[in-house]
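User: When convenient, might I ask for sequence and C-alpha coordinates for a protein?

AI:
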Amino acid sequence: MIILNPLFNVIQIALWLYLWAIILSAILSWLVHFGVINTRNQFVSMIGEFLWRITEPALRPIRRFMPNLGGIDISPIILILVIYFARDLLGNIQYSLNVGGV
Protein backbone atom coordinates (compact mmCIF):
# COMPACT_ATOMS: atom_id res chain seq x y z
CA MET A 1 0.00 0.00 0.00
CA ILE A 2 3.03 2.29 -0.19
CA ILE A 3 1.97 3.45 -3.66
CA LEU A 4 -1.30 4.91 -2.34
CA ASN A 5 0.41 7.30 0.09
CA PRO A 6 1.67 9.71 -2.60
CA LEU A 7 -1.71 9.53 -4.33
CA PHE A 8 -3.52 10.43 -1.11
CA ASN A 9 -1.07 13.26 -0.54
CA VAL A 10 -1.64 14.70 -4.02
CA ILE A 11 -5.41 14.51 -3.58
CA GLN A 12 -5.22 16.23 -0.19
CA ILE A 13 -3.01 19.00 -1.60
CA ALA A 14 -5.42 19.47 -4.50
CA LEU A 15 -8.34 19.73 -2.08
CA TRP A 16 -6.39 22.22 0.03
CA LEU A 17 -5.65 24.38 -3.05
CA TYR A 18 -9.30 24.20 -4.14
CA LEU A 19 -10.36 25.25 -0.65
CA TRP A 20 -8.21 28.38 -0.96
CA ALA A 21 -9.59 29.06 -4.44
CA ILE A 22 -13.11 29.06 -2.96
CA ILE A 23 -12.07 31.41 -0.17
CA LEU A 24 -10.29 33.78 -2.57
CA SER A 25 -13.26 33.74 -4.94
CA ALA A 26 -15.65 34.70 -2.13
CA ILE A 27 -13.37 37.48 -0.88
CA LEU A 28 -12.86 38.83 -4.40
CA SER A 29 -16.60 38.84 -5.06
CA TRP A 30 -17.15 40.84 -1.84
CA LEU A 31 -14.44 43.33 -2.78
CA VAL A 32 -15.91 43.79 -6.26
CA HIS A 33 -19.45 44.08 -4.91
CA PHE A 34 -18.50 46.79 -2.40
CA GLY A 35 -16.47 48.71 -4.97
CA VAL A 36 -13.08 48.19 -3.35
CA ILE A 37 -11.64 46.54 -6.47
CA ASN A 38 -12.38 47.67 -10.00
CA THR A 39 -13.10 44.89 -12.48
CA ARG A 40 -11.98 47.06 -15.38
CA ASN A 41 -8.43 46.34 -14.30
CA GLN A 42 -7.28 43.52 -16.60
CA PHE A 43 -5.37 41.65 -13.89
CA VAL A 44 -8.29 41.71 -11.46
CA SER A 45 -10.62 40.66 -14.26
CA MET A 46 -8.39 37.72 -15.20
CA ILE A 47 -8.09 36.54 -11.59
CA GLY A 48 -11.84 36.87 -11.05
CA GLU A 49 -12.66 35.00 -14.25
CA PHE A 50 -10.21 32.21 -13.38
CA LEU A 51 -11.58 31.80 -9.86
CA TRP A 52 -15.16 31.89 -11.12
CA ARG A 53 -14.45 29.23 -13.77
CA ILE A 54 -12.88 26.79 -11.32
CA THR A 55 -15.30 27.28 -8.42
CA GLU A 56 -18.65 27.81 -10.13
CA PRO A 57 -19.07 24.20 -11.38
CA ALA A 58 -18.88 22.95 -7.79
CA LEU A 59 -20.97 25.76 -6.30
CA ARG A 60 -23.81 25.69 -8.86
CA PRO A 61 -25.32 22.33 -7.76
CA ILE A 62 -25.21 23.45 -4.12
CA ARG A 63 -27.01 26.70 -4.97
CA ARG A 64 -29.71 24.74 -6.77
CA PHE A 65 -30.71 22.99 -3.54
CA MET A 66 -30.26 25.93 -1.16
CA PRO A 67 -33.29 27.94 -0.10
CA ASN A 68 -33.36 31.68 -0.78
CA LEU A 69 -31.74 33.39 2.19
CA GLY A 70 -32.37 36.95 1.08
CA GLY A 71 -29.25 37.54 -0.97
CA ILE A 72 -26.85 35.66 1.30
CA ASP A 73 -24.96 32.90 -0.48
CA ILE A 74 -23.72 30.21 1.89
CA SER A 75 -22.84 27.71 -0.82
CA PRO A 76 -19.08 28.38 -0.43
CA ILE A 77 -19.35 27.52 3.28
CA ILE A 78 -21.14 24.28 2.49
CA LEU A 79 -18.53 23.38 -0.14
CA ILE A 80 -15.73 24.14 2.32
CA LEU A 81 -17.37 21.78 4.86
CA VAL A 82 -17.62 19.08 2.18
CA ILE A 83 -13.93 19.54 1.35
CA TYR A 84 -12.96 19.26 5.04
CA PHE A 85 -15.06 16.10 5.30
CA ALA A 86 -13.37 14.63 2.20
CA ARG A 87 -9.89 15.48 3.52
CA ASP A 88 -10.64 13.86 6.88
CA LEU A 89 -12.11 10.82 5.16
CA LEU A 90 -9.01 10.46 2.97
CA GLY A 91 -6.79 10.86 6.02
CA ASN A 92 -8.69 8.12 7.87
CA ILE A 93 -8.49 5.80 4.87
CA GLN A 94 -4.77 6.49 4.53
CA TYR A 95 -4.24 5.83 8.24
CA SER A 96 -6.22 2.57 8.17
CA LEU A 97 -4.28 1.36 5.13
CA ASN A 98 -0.97 2.18 6.81
CA VAL A 99 -1.92 0.49 10.08
CA GLY A 100 -3.38 -2.55 8.32
CA GLY A 101 -0.40 -2.82 5.95
CA VAL A 102 2.23 -2.88 8.72
Remarks:
- Residues 8 and 93 are 9 Å apart (CA to CA).
- Helices lie at 4-33, 42-65, 75-101.
